[in-house]
Amino acid sequence: MLSPTEETSAKGASSVAPLPPDALIIVPVRNAVLFPGLVFPVAVGRPKSVMAAQQAVREQSQVGILMQRDAEVDDPEPADMHRIGTVASIVRYITAPDGTHHLVCQGEQRFQIQEFLHGWPFLVARVVRLPEQETRTPEIEARFVNLKAQAVESIELLPQAPAELLAAMQSIEQPSALADFAVAYMDTKPAEKQEILETLDIAARMEKVSRILAHRIEVLRLSQKIGQQTKAALDERQREVLLREQMAAIQRELGEGDEGKNAEMAELGQAIAKAGMPKEVEDQARKELRRLQRMPEAAGEYGMIRTYLDWLIELPWALPDESPIDINEARRVLDEDHYGLDKIKRRIVEFLAVRKLAPQGKAPILCFVGPPGVGKTSLGQSIARAMNRKFVRVALGGVHDEAEIRGHRRTYIGALPGNIIQAIRKAGTRNCVMMLDEIDKMGSGIQGDPSAAMLEVLDPEQNGTFRDNYLGVPFDLSRVVFLTTANMLDTIPGPLRDRMEIISLAGYTADEKLQIARRYLVRRQMEANGLQSGQVEITDEAVRDIIDHYTREAGVRNLEREIGKALRHAAVRFAEGQSEAIRVGREDLVTILGAPRFEDEVAMRTSVPGVATGLAWTPVGGDILFIEATRTPGGGRLILTGQLGDVMKESAQAALSIVKNQAAQLGIDGGSFAKTDIHIHVPAGATPKDGPSAGVAMFMALTSLMTDRTVRSDTAMTGEVSLRGLVLPVGGIKEKVVAAHRAGIKRVMLPARNRKDFEEIPEEARGQLEFVWLERVEEAVAAGLDAAAASGAGTAKTAALAET
Fold first, then answer.
1. In the Cβ-directed half-sphere of 129, how many Cα atoms lie within 13 Å?
2. What is the pLDDT of residues 446-459, one digit of tens each?
3. Active site (annotated) includes residue 736
């Protein structure tokens, strides 16, 4: 029924044509579906919908509630509407004070659109009413029983579900009504409800509703379980808090109070006073202690603050009395721990002397760079012994998080100070010797760049106020003696490298390795394998053979392993009951260690034209490499193999150009190059190689090939070449010369502009090697090639190849 105001509005409305008998006024709705048998409120606000509702009320006719396909469309056309809806009777038409219109509709039955009609100011369509099929087969009865049980369970799982809804559900006797009622009151998507409305077959409709209900029941069960668990956790926490309050009240009544906590706070206060903290740090510690006193022990932050105070108390804030540095004792310690390394020891003694004369001065940070196994870390231990200070080592290999250097903030669970502060706490003193091992192995990631954090740590001008994120207060690192180690400098950022003084450690010569083995390695391995002095003797010849034929390294780690194998062989015999002393000689090595792994292949490889011995630098020390060249009939191509880098390929091209340019002086037929393919190969193809230092070796290999004269087998060379034939300087001379000496080379050809590096070469290598200093490549030809051709005249062979 219309109110008087609404009747007046309806009478004033313009008259419209009457509807055909099978036509129905359509009221479009958004995201809502009305089912038969249910009462449903509809808010109408669009002008067409208002006119349609008022016309239906005026004519006391039914309307068709139809959901539009896209809820965003404000003025839906017939194409925007679904084709199946519900015929509804208008129970009440209401106009709210704010001007909005509302319908209360009761669904009667489904209908299907036949066609939309034109000529009305609202949607009108010819429809076919779809009666329900209430056939009661055994299948439908079974589905009906199951669906009712699911519907009842879903209502019971709802929090604060109304009892009337459960009673209404249980009173339904028709399968179609049950399916419509269950899905109507279910929290599901409008599209799924529309799909149920459009399903006319009762069995199929009940199956779909049952499937949706089953999913909904599982969700409600999980939600109920989670809610119960959460409530139980909260109840337990409230119970714990209540019991603690009751316990505190009982203790106060008994006169006990917080004596235990007060005693603990007093003990912490005394520890803070004795820690020798700077005033700023002590003020921070007292502030945190006052917070801890006011905080109940059950609070989550209590343990965090207590741990923080423990860190502040246990750090060595006060500077201990330093014993004077004895330079003579320092020399003795260095000589006792390391053989050779005279220049390194001299620099360390200078470092210690400066520390003795100016203990408050800013000492440089020493960085020991060299291949593995040459004693970089043990040098740091010797420095600590010489200075009579605690030694602590921090491994930086693989560190990729800045927080591992600066620490995590206390707001994070499980936060700790960085590795620097942890190492100082471990050392127990603020003037320790700290070895930052493998500083070149640090990486960077999404957590920051740890090398950037190291800039402050290793800067003597800044580390006096180093601030760890966990501590939140400055800590003085200026009295810490920092030492660093690295295998190579290329991966260390420039600003960080600039803060350190680089001390290079090249590999050991064979004689140095022999002395190291006699003085340190044999004794250490005998102790490690449980052997007593006098039980086993390893001859110097056996150690020399192990150095030459079983190891090929810059350091001595593999040498120590092989000596350990020989001693374990003896340990087995002693464990079996042998009492006589065992002597391990050269003749026993094949039995104990197997066949020799390395041999002198220099003479064998360079015995044919086209092969030259070059010198290379690697991150694990110097090494020798062979440049091989050969030629075949072809069209003048240059073929390069052996996994060469771009710079090395360019060196090969430059060397070939020089050979072509100097063909007449070298006795080579210049026309042969156009009919010859030249192939340059550097063996060990699985290893990447790059750099310009092989230019001289490539030139000599090509010259040897084209002149049919072999390169001297006792000679190795290094140097970059220019197109004018100049020999340019290269790096790594010390490591390369040591590698040549280790490989049995007698002569080395080096760029003349590298004479400045001569003093860096170990004295033993300088005394046993002949050095040829090169200004131009012609000097290399004169000094490096054998005088006569390997077979016949080189020019004749070249001419014959060209004619072929």
1. 15
2. 777 888 888 888 88
3. yes
